[in-house]
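Researcher: We're teaching a course module on how sequence relates to structure. For the next exercise, students receive a sequence and then see the predicted structure as tokens, so they can try to spot secondary structure elements on their own. Here is the exercise chain.
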Amino acid sequence: MTWEDELGEAVCTIEQLKQYIELTPKEEEQLQKVIKRHPMRVTRYYISLIDWSNPNDPIRRMAIPSEGELDLSGSYDTSGELENTKLTGLQHKYSQTALVLATNRCASYCRYCFRKRLVGLPNKEVVENFGTAVEYIREHNEINNVLISGGDPFILPTEIIKEFLEMLSDIPHLSFIRFGTKVPVIFPERISEDEELLMLLKKCSLEDRRIYVVTQFNHPKEITNRSIEAVGRLISSNVIINNQSVLLKGVNDNPDILAELQNKLVSIGVNPYYIFQCRPVKRAKRRFQVPLYRGNEIIEDAKKKINGHSKRFRYIMSHRTGKIEILGIMDDYIYLKYHQAKDPNNIGEIFKRKINKRAGWLDDLD
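Model: And here is the predicted structure for the students to work with:
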């Protein structure tokens, strides 16, 4: 099968899910309510990684809907994306970076996704005309990089990705282009089985203007022979790969697991970049968010078990005001720093808040 055919075999319905797990009538009714609001899709590859005998399996927790998604606490726009949208599908929050939402589809829908409001759903947030986005980028010389995200842009046909790269290639003030994609983790066949995509990336990733892939491995169990092969093929295509993990309750909120993940990433050629504090996303916050106090403990304990290259990541909260680094806790205060900020005057500012051991977000701190 082609990768498109394989994607078409993804598990998207409760009936398909019941091939793997038994559900009571009440559980089935609850999950139907969940996926009616937030669709389910899990690739056959990714679902094969689940140990169904383990109710706490981390892949299962990340990929399979649960009744916890009926909880409505939180927000669908935790980072102020709406207020930073300059035209349909293009956000410009930080002066040097343009973010393009290229699609609302992914190979698998993560149950903790911070864009649950749009993935797999009809919406008016995805770019309608990429050429219009390109013109905005061309007219703003302060923009030196573009992040193409979604959804997952690597689910788009290779021909569309080619058009994107060609349209961006003659903008002189762009230094690099990033693709935010989880395909190497959840659907490695998309990369390994498409020579055209690999050739395109190699052609466009130049010595003085690289293509970056920003992916998301969250657990060592996701690092398999097939994902390693996909990573290797990207590296052979002159692509630089960075990883953004999300600290998730019941998945990687354990220093040993987090340390193993970072060490393995470095061993396969993936650069640890960020570990994100899980955002207070509606239908995900209570199930997945770890309190900041506990998160800091986990991060610091994990760092004791990893080498310098593996601990290059920053522990980051992607707040509506900017990317805030969690520096640490001393006495009764948590210390924070604006790693990036919507207001450039805030970049580098260090500040503190009174610690609240239950707080999971800046807005929950005094």
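Model: If you want an answer key for the exercise: Residues 3-364 form a domain with the TIM Barrel fold (CATH 3.20.20.70). The chain has one domain: 3-364.
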